[in-house]
Amino acid sequence: MSLISEEFYSVLASRMKASSIREILKIIQSSNVISLAGGMPDPATFPAEEINEVAKQILSKKSALALQYSSTEGLTELREFILNWIDKDNKKAGLDNIVITSGSQQGLDLVSKVLLDPGDIVIVELPSYLAALNAFRSYGGEMVGIPMDDEGMRMDSLRETLTQLKKEGKRVKFIYTVSTFQNPAGVTMSILRRKEILEIAREFNVLILEDNPYDKLRFEGEPLPSIYSLDKEGYVISLGTFSKILCPGLRLAWILGNKEIVGKIVIMKQATDLCTTIFNQLIAYEYCTNYDIDKNIESNIEIYRKKRNVMLNALDRYFPAEVIWTKPEGGFFVFATLPEYIDADEMFLEAIKEEVAYVSGAPFFANDKGKNTMRLSFCYPSEKDIEEGIKRLGKVIKKRIKK
Ligand SMILES: Cc1ncc(COP(=O)(O)O)c(C=O)c1O
Questions:
Q1: Is any atom of ligand 1 closer than 6 Å to the C-beta of 377?
Q2: Which CATH class is domain 9-45+295-400?
Q3: Average pLDDT over residues 149-171
Q4: Domain 48-290 belongs to what topology?
Q5: Which of 73, 117, 131, 238 qualifies as a FRET site for 396, CA 20 to 30 Å off?
């Protein structure tokens, strides 16, 4: 019998469930299953040789700095580089507005730690990034979902919901949005809605947490300004990361926001990990200044665009007409909606028998809906596997279509 019984756990820890994606990944890693499940970048996009070169240089020339503790805010040069790189037209942010984190996942955790008390409401998209929902839940945040359409979160519904919550005396802390090439839906919020969400934030006095890991991975169409860059008053906290545009193994990301909030985050981060690894920050900084990160991103876009096209063409060929799916202009994901009577979770084992995996959509929905949806990632598998995986999945779905 285990010595540790349930009563040892905090109420919040008892409520947390294992991520179904991680469980799936464990099962399929050592098999012939073609996985359209995980959101891992293609390793072909990692500039491994260049990173090897800068790491060697750092260890031979700056080992005392690289192997030491460092400041909680993060390496000054790296923060300056990021500010100039992503905020170059705006110039509104200074060093007090940015903190380096160990991945955006830590950013989600720290923002929750700083802003949420148990019972506070977080507004999220339907569907929304699962690990963000878990971060909010882990601090007792309660999620209220807003439907999306082709232009992202629906502003009429957002306004209605906030009005209703206000009437009920509920405390809404922030609106969480993955504004560009959303995970899991692949949808991008239109410019009109980016402006409107800011108006709404102002009107209801709530913050916006804009999580933007895929923004630079645009395959077509005009780039849109982030909600953060449109904000003149400090309502938006923005998360950016090197994970999808350089490599996730460095675990490097940043939070940009008004300096009072960033200051609180820095204090909370001290209790979390003292500082993000300085060795990796030096690697990212030296890489970004000695090589051309934008050029690397451009070549990565080529890789992902081809994969996206293979997936969309395969979906047209092999999926039955009863299924619809999003057509992302960038990022990593396509989101498919099956007829209401098909439960993607129930179908999963059958798909595994056919040696293909996906992530069923329901856990991404904060309102227990979405049982007939699935996320299909085109980032990691080869073009050949994407084509074959969609073919296998089409076969599994067709068996369930009612005539
Ligand atoms: C929307 C979103 N936010 C945050 C993250 C976490 O990224 P990081 O590797 O920077 O922790 C991911 C990773 O998939 C993501 O899709």
A1: no
A2: alpha beta
A3: 97
A4: Aspartate Aminotransferase; domain 2 (3.40.640)
A5: 131
